[in-house]
Amino acid sequence: MKTRSIVEEKSYAFALRIIKLYRHLAEEKKEYVLSKQILRCGTSIGANVKEALQGESKNDFIHKLSISLKEASETEYWLNLLHDSHYITTKSFESITNECVELIKLTTAIIKTSRKNIRKK
Q1: Which residues touch 20 (CB under 8 Å, ≥6 apart)?
Q2: What is the distance between the alpha carbons of residues 58 and 97, in angstroms, rounded to a whole number?
Q3: How far is CA 38 from CA 14, 43, 65, 92, in A?
Q4: Cβ atoms of residues 39 and 18 within 8 Å
Q5: Who contacts 58 (Cβ-Cβ below 8 Å, separation ≥6)?
Q6: Are 107 and 68 within 8 A, CB to CB?
Q7: Shortest CA distance to 67 belongs to which of 44, 86, 90, 84?
Q8: Three-state SS letters, the chain
């Protein structure tokens, strides 16, 4: 069995948290529009990471990981909106947003390093 990279593991674990948040929003809060948005982009982060890892080239890897970064940024937006509209508590918001920001920082660092390595060649 192949070992998963840190970004792959973290994005997968984050997707699981997003699914739990979606269920909470839909079942407990009866919120369906914002919950679908957060589900779509929050789970897309890991899917795009997985796709990037199978990239056909370094440029393809960077492109797919950049999509993952955009999805993480969008997820952060929806989390802020859910918090500010009082659908999620401050404690929940801070916990899940910290993970989202960590994914943003991680993917940003990987993209920057990959671009620098391409320029060196």
Answers
A1: none
A2: 29
A3: 12, 8, 19, 14
A4: yes
A5: 114, 117, 118
A6: yes
A7: 44
A8: CCCCCHHHHHHHHHHHHHHHHHHHHHHHCCCCHHHHHHHHHHHHHHHHHHHHHCCCCHHHHHHHHHHHHHHHHHHHHHHHHHHHCCCCCHHHHHHHHHHHHHHHHHHHHHHHHHHHHHHHC
- Asked if the model's pLDDT at residue 1 lies above 60, the reply is no
Tell me: the pLDDT tens digits for 66-100?
A: 999 999 999 999 999 999 999 999 999 999 999 99
Which amino acid belongs to residue 43? T
Return the amino acid letter for 33.
V
pTM: predicted TM-score of the whole model, two decimal places: 0.94
Residues constituting the chain? 121
Q: Is the pLDDT of residue 106 over 80?
A: yes
Q: Token pair for residue 9? A: 């593991």
